[in-house]
Amino acid sequence: MQNKEAIGTVVRLTGGFYTVDTPEGLFSTRARGLFRLSGVSPCVGDKATVEITGPGEGYLVDIAPRKNVLIRPPVANLDQLMVVVAAAQPGPNYRVIDKLITLAEYRSIPVTMVITKTDLGDGSAIANLYTQAGYPVILCDGQYMDEALRQRFAQALAGKLTALCGNTGVGKSSLLNRLRPELNLPTGEISKSLGRGRHTTRHVELFSVLGGLVADTPGFSAIEIEKLERITKEELPLCFREFRPFVGQCRFDDCAHEREPDCAVRAAVEDGRIAQSRYDSYLALLEEARRIKSWEK
């Protein structure tokens, strides 16, 4: 007799097991070998079909077509990326932040910036930087959550599948604990010798928060970010949304916005319409993009 099937959402990924939330309940599953043959790895957020083999157990046998997917964190069908930045302890790493935003733009995933730990440092400069670049920004301290701020997060999260992303130690799990205290997620202290946080999130999991689903993801280093995506040098300028009004206004159609004369993008940097740190991130990513061979894309 054929096993019964159920359809749901992958809400947890850890140690080769996939937890799928279905109308019939939660199922702990392993993926069938066909996924290895096809080169597709199931992700949190996937709409999945489970072949039920016993109470709360089964095999993941199919996933529906995705509207988007990230490699790291392994999350599919995102409605937005919430990039979490600490005002201090650790301070912002703009290369990592801008790489994440660039990846989201490349995948057409909306971005919201969240600046945490404003009780430990002034987050206004970071907020102004990304507001100027065209992104919504939410500021919060590391301890409290008043009703007005809670409503701001509710408006941002309700009805959406959101991934919290950012460097280790910026306070992603702490933020989720304040938004939904019963989660009681483990949090880590900042290493004084290294100036960065210790990993406390070891897997990717979706949590129901303020009417939406939120993925708390492991922190990661700038080295790991380099492996995320292969964006070509031709595609890169359009992944910086504040560049877009100026792309096409340069003297040369193939302008790389680096050293060419009469470059509209560089002119916008010089007169303050594009922030210098964002342009510096673009140049760093441009150098990375130039190392991509056509067969690697």
Question: Which helices and strands, and how do they pair?
Answer:
Elements: E1 5-14, E2 17-22, E3 25-31, H1 34-38, E4 47-54, E5 57-63, E6 80-86, H2 94-106, E7 111-116, H3 124-132, E8 137-139, H4 147-157, E9 161-165, H5 172-179, E10 190-191, E11 196-197, E12 204-209, E13 212-216, H6 222-225, H7 264-270, H8 276-290
Parallel strand pairs: 3-5, 6-7, 6-9, 7-8, 9-13
Antiparallel strand pairs: 1-2, 1-4, 1-12, 2-3, 4-5, 10-11, 12-13
Helix pairs in contact: 2-8
Q: Based on CA inertia axes, which overall geometry fits?
A: globular
Distance linking N and C termini? 45 Å
User: Can you tell me the CATH topology of the largest domain?
Assistant: Rossmann fold
The CATH architecture of the largest domain comes to 3-Layer(aba) Sandwich
Largest sheet: 5 strands, mixed, barrel
Task: Describe the overall structure.
- The structure is a single chain.
- With 297 residues, the chain is α/β, with parallel strands linked by helices.
- It folds into three domains: 5-63, Beta Barrel (OB fold (Dihydrolipoamide Acetyltransferase, E2P)), CATH 2.40.50.140; 80-225, Rossmann fold; 236-296, Ribonucleotide Reductase Protein R1, domain 1.
- 24% of the residues lie in helices and 25% in strands.
- The chain has eight helices and 13 strands.
- The chain has helices spanning 34-38, 94-106, 124-132, 147-157, 172-179, 222-225, 264-270, 276-290, and strands at residues 5-14, 17-22, 25-31, 47-54, 57-63, 80-86, 111-116, 137-139, 161-165, 190-191, 196-197, 204-209, 212-216.
- The chain has a five-stranded mixed barrel with strand order 1-2-3-5-4.
- Helix 2 packs across helix 8 (276-290).
- It starts with a strand and ends in a 7-residue tail after the last helix.
